[in-house]
Write a structure and sequence with these properties.
Number of domains: 1
Distance between the termini: 19 Å
CATH superfamily: NADP-dependent oxidoreductase domain
Number of strands: 10
CATH architecture: Alpha-Beta Barrel
CATH class: Alpha Beta
Shape: globular
Structural class: alpha/beta
Strand order of the largest sheet: 3-10-9-8-7-6-5-4
Oligomer: single chain
Helix content: 25-40%
Length: 331
């Protein structure tokens, strides 16, 4: 496993990290979740990503229980807040009240004294950015957080947060969590250039496009797969069209020439950009973890990169994401 700095911070994270949306504590039972987390650590993964709303808090509880068996100083724990956590009208967004209370809840469920990276699951137009920056800066000064980051923020929003933090002598976000894969390249236009300039690293989610880029859906949707599940598969519909599956089938030939598995090739392509600090993958089985980790450290030849660019060009009119959906952040 190779490691990269998260933005301009000194935090080192594994090139492949383990997410928990639709897996730990929900799609995977507690015993299997524990086994996945411990195996991920043995494979060199040190970054584990979750959120307060995943499985209504169960993902944090299950992850925290598994991580309790590992040396705390050797793991990077990341979580998020923004989405409603209760009926209370203040139990949502990025107000000082909700951020402070969300962090307290995450600490309790994770069973830890501090969280390495706490992220804003979405931007909150209803809260002044100054209030949010001050809340995170205070939490870092208190020792409850080490760093903070954002998820699915625009380049302008990330820049504003950094400027406000500097003006108020606070702490700026060190990370952004965007969707990024061969099928979703939109961040290359504005997000990546802005974040390079600002020193903000990328923790890319869904680098395998919900598993489609592993090749397992090229011939159709297996009965026991995520795509066949009405809830877990609802975010995959844009990736399952005939044209997309045909291109993924062509990806097999490129992977064979690169002497890599299909999933490993798709992940290695994302890692070609040094601005990508880590790729958040979801896994339900050991063999998925092993292949995903094999992408770390791969250097793809220019000929392979050229073929991938031709096969998966940047979309001129990408399908818009729904900001109302809470569970779009782990591969």
């Amino acid at each position: 496993m190779r490691y990269r700095g998260l933005g301009d911070s000194g935090l080192q994270v594994s090139e492949i990290s383990l997410g928990s949306w639709l897996t730990l504590g929900s799609g995977v039972d507690r015993a299997a979740s524990r086994a996945l987390v411990l195996e991920a650590f043995e494979l060199g993964i040190n970054l584990f990503d979750t959120a307060d709303v995943y499985a209504e808090g169960e993902a944090e509880r299950v992850l925290g229980s598994a991580l309790a068996e590992l040396p705390r100083e050797r793991v990077v724990v990341a979580s998020k807040c923004f989405f409603p956590s209760a009926e209370n009208p203040d139990a949502r967004g990025l107000s000082r009240k909700h951020v402070m209370e969300s962090v307290a809840g995450s600490l309790r469920r994770l069973g830890t004294d501090y969280i390495d990276l706490y992220q804003c699951h979405r931007a909150d137009p209803g809260t002044p950015i100054e209030e949010t920056v001050d809340a995170f800066s205070d939490l870092i000064r208190q020792g409850r957080l080490r760093h903070w980051g954002v998820s699915l923020w625009s380049a302008a929003q990330i820049e504003e947060a950094c400027q406000v933090a500097e003006a108020r002598q606070g702490y700026a976000p060190i990370s952004n969590q965007p969707q990024y894969s061969l099928l979703r390249r939109e961040i290359e236009a504005e997000i990546l250039p802005a974040c390079r300039r600002l020193g903000v690293g990328q923790l890319a989610w869904s680098p395998l496009a919900q598993g489609v880029l592993s090749g397992k859906y090229a011939a159709g949707v297996p009965a026991n797969s995520r795509a066949a599940d009405a809830f877990r598969g609802q975010f995959m519909r844009d990736f399952l069209g005939d044209e997309t599956r045909a291109r993924v089938e062509e990806l097999r030939a490129v992977a064979a020439d690169a002497q890599l598995g299909v999933a490993a090739l798709a992940l290695a392509w994302c890692l070609r950009d040094p601005g990508i600090s880590s790729l958040i993958v979801g896994a339900t089985r050991s063999e998925q973890l092993v292949e995903n980790v094999s992408a770390s450290g791969q250097q793809l030849p220019e000929e392979i990169l050229g073929r991938l660019d031709a096969l998966f060009p940047i979309a001129a009119d990408p399908t818009p994401e729904s900001p109302a959906q809470p569970g779009l952040d782990d591969g």
